[in-house]
Amino acid sequence: MNDDAIALSGPLYDFVVSTILLLTTHNGVYSSPCHQQPGTHPLLTQVDISEGIPKQVSVHFCKQCERYLQPPGTWMQCAFESRELLALCLKKLKGSMNKVRLIDAGFLWTEPHSKRIKTKLTIQKEVMNGAILQQVFVVEFVVLSQMCDDCHRVEAKDFWKAVVQVRQKTQHKKTFYYLEQLLLKHKLHQTALNIKEIHDGLDFYYSSKQHAQKMVDFLQCTVPCRSKTSQRLISHDIHSNTFNYKSTFSIEIVPVCKDNVVCLSPRLAQSLGNFGQVCVCVRVTSTIHLIDPNTLQIAEVDGNTYWRNPFNGLCSPRQLEEFLVMDIDVIRDQKLGSGAGVRSNKHVLAEVWVQKTSEMDTGQQYHCRTFLGHLLNIGDLVLGYDFANSNVNDEYLNKMNPHHVPDVVLIKKSYDRTRRVKRRNWKLQEMARDKEGMDTDDERQYQDFLEDLEEDEALRKNINIYKDTSKIPVESDTDDDGAPRISLAEMLEEMSLNDATGGDGADMMTD
């Protein structure tokens, strides 16, 4: 031993080490960064800084949705051996590690099916005489299966917290078809747990009341309607004073659809600018768009105005009859009375003489005014309602002067439906829903809605229309009967997973 070196032994050695050196232990074996001492240091036998920290902890995992429970009631989606899972495990030890300092933490490999998660923790703590002791140990987390509340409600068939019941008391579903496309465009159907279609409406089921309320707010801004809210108590915890309710939102859409003939009350007709009582509904969006076939006046009726002065459709779409235009005379420069409202610039007023195609052998003709003067020519077919030979029971119509009630109200020009379906090269998306008690004429009503989109450019501006690549339309001059079409510029390309990955996606995979 050199003379400059000082040999330390006994109590003096223990004092220097405890005050100067940083002691580390790996599985109980003492080591020093500047001096190796065989055996175990006395401090390690006297002090265990991991004491009080549990070496085996349980975590709860839901197999249905593959989420972990973060107490007290939050379920988190964590990948295996991810940072999120490590943070969740450390939170389990947070209460027992408030007296030590966490230096490092990581996962140890375990068999994926062993339901065990092992973590290696490195901690430090100040012990006697100001020494800092560092220790590495392993904590094992046992994965226990527990079904979360959401999955439990699904399995118990009691998974919804709120339902939105949308109803419309009409015989045609044009408004629902339009509403469906708006929901698809704004992707509001994605938050619904289930969508059920019944005879006179749709039911949307949600897991939370907030999602249902968002749906109700959207409907009130989209279609003229009114709503009612009710709730039913499911359970009550007297200890925490918490209540579990199921909420029901009832939405009633105005019972008026496109192409309906309605009769307004005298008070409402006067408030709209001396509007004619018998008028036609040309569109239903957030308001009801009406046109007077005698004067071309147009007006909009919102939901609040409708419920104060309600009116119903006089005829159903099944009562539409086909007429042949025998003569037509366009009316120009008609003067309106004082207080009249706005006139339509898209329509032309005309007087027409028509004859039913079912009464061609009788010679019976009808005279009426129409707003379709820009579309009709002699020899064209047109659909309309025959009021002269029908029995209509309506409160306001029965009180009108019979001379002011038209014999025929024309609705729209008639085209060959077979040709229109054959050359239609576009399609719409549909919501996935359960159907119950459907009528047999649903396909006819859906085709009517598609034809309305082709004829009304303003209606299809709020709808996503996609190319139908499965259909190749046959272009022929002999098949062109003047029916309106949707231009290629208005159609969207329908995206799919195969399109995004170039085939089946195998070429884009890398090692």
Class computed from helices, strands and strand pairing: alpha+beta
**Average pLDDT score:** 80
Q: Residue ranges: pLDDT <50 for 5 or more in a row? A: 1-40, 496-511
What's the N-to-C terminus distance? 61 Å
Question: What count of domains describes the coordinates?
Answer: 4
Helicity level = 10-25%
Gyration radius, rounded: 38 Å
DSSP strand content: 25-35%
C-alpha geometry? elongated
Count of β-strands: 26
- Number of separate helices: 12
Main beta-sheet strand count, sense and barrel state: 8 strands, mixed
Descriptive tags:
single chain; 511 residues; alpha+beta; 4 domains; eight-stranded mixed sheet; six-stranded mixed sheet; 12 helices; elongated; disordered N terminus; disordered C terminus; NMD_SH3; 60S ribosomal export protein NMD3
Report on this structure.
- By secondary structure, this protein is of the alpha+beta class.
- It folds into four domains: 11-149, no CATH class; 152-253; 261-414, no CATH class; 418-497, no CATH class.
- It has helices at 11-20, 42-46, 83-92, 149-155, 174-186, 209-222, 266-271, 303-308, 395-398, 417-423, 442-455, 497-501, and strands spanning 23-26, 29-31, 56-62, 67-70, 74-76, 101-108, 116-126, 132-145, 162-167, 194-198, 201-206, 225-237, 242-253, 261-263, 278-284, 288-291, 298-301, 321-330, 350-356, 366-370, 381-386, 408-413, 426-427, 434-435, 465-467, 491-492.
- The protein starts with 10 loop residues before the first helix and ends in a 10-residue tail after the last helix.
- Residues 320-413 form the 60S ribosomal export protein NMD3 OB-fold domain.
- This is 60S ribosomal export protein NMD3.
- One of its GO terms (cellular component) is cytoplasm.
